[in-house]
Request: fold
Amino acid sequence: MKVLVTGILGQDGANMVEYLLANTDAKIYGMIRRTSNPNFVNCKKFINDKNFQIVYGDLSDSISIDTLVRDIQPDYFINFAAQSFVACSWDLPLQTFDVNASGVARCLEAIRRFQPKCRFYSAGSSEEFGDVEFTPQDINHPIRPRSPYGASKAAARHLVKVYRDSYNLYAVHGLLFNHEGTKRGEEFVTRKISRGVARINYSIKNHLPFEPIELGNLDAKRDWSDSEDFVDGVWKMLNQEKPNEYILSSNETHSIREFVEKAFEAAGIDGVWHGERTSEQFSISTESYQKINGHSSVLVKINEKFYRPAEVDLLLGDSTPARQELGWTPQVSFEKLVSKMVKFDIDNFEN
Ligand code: NAP
Ligand code: G4F
Reply:
């Protein structure tokens, strides 16, 4: 069995490769794009595995995608590559659309032309639901994107359906709510917070001054899970009799504010909120402050530059069908996820 996985330097691609190497005998081809200084930090566990091989390709280059599918003849093509940062998609709308939407068309065309039996996964997003009409969101929720990123993923979803219907391909576009973990990129809010907590924790322990974490909208709510749980759901979606599409989600929602509270709690730092709107701050409670007397006690403050031109205020998924029909069972709760990320970043900050 041969599996082509894209986005392997990122979070989900790396977790998928680890999952496939642990659970199958497949030969894995991990696609990376050419960059001057690639970061292999997420690939440490498998980079030298005998069943793993790096290949070059880029979703914006159809020749590279055609060549990979034609030469490898993969049984599965799992496409996690994307311009995945919503905030940046207003700065790079065309590049986002080219990679996330046209890139999926390039994958589908390559499969249609060179290996039509290949099963294809397209990484869809709850961001497609956008300005939500009802809660919890299920697979029938209308597409109402609020960002160029959301629009690009919605376009990919239509393309996958068109190719599935037109050419009878096994192609699925999973609708995944936010998922995080120790391989998460540093600009996403959860990792930004867990790394910030680790930095501040180190300063407090060593009686050093520290700068607060600067965040944008604290009131947005997200349905957060662990990426390591989700790659199992993706693999199950790819191995059904028919290419049914599912939502993967935790079925809980929490605000950014709650993530901040839980993250500092996981490090044993007591904080309190005070102030309003853009002046709101999270500061060390008076009792703990005695220990670092003389230094600023502000842990989190608002920086308006992190507000977005349009926000997705509330995401809360309903993944009951995936749990019942695919037998998918996520293991990691919100609390476990936050403490796992904070602990990992504290351990790595100090070593
Ligand atoms: P990620 O960590 O940002 O990884 C994305 C990967 O795509 C990176 O390794 C990046 O390469 C690669 N890439 C970007 N542009 C490319 C191009 N033109 N050609 C080839 N590779 C390219 O994202 P993730 O969190 O793992 O997410 C995986 C997928 O799921 C994405 O499609 C994302 O949009 C989607 N998704 C994610 C979530 C979530 O909460 N994580 C939820 C729903 C959907 P470099 O390393 O070279 O930059
Ligand atoms: O962590 P985020 O950047 O993730 P976002 O925008 O929800 O997108 C992630 O999940 C999507 C699935 O729903 C994926 F498709 C997508 O690829 C990505 O993985 O922001 C989460 C929330 C937003 O409401 C944002 O406004 O956090 C808010 N936020 C507040 N302060 C911040 C910040 N986000 C970031 N990145 N940085 C801040 O300082």
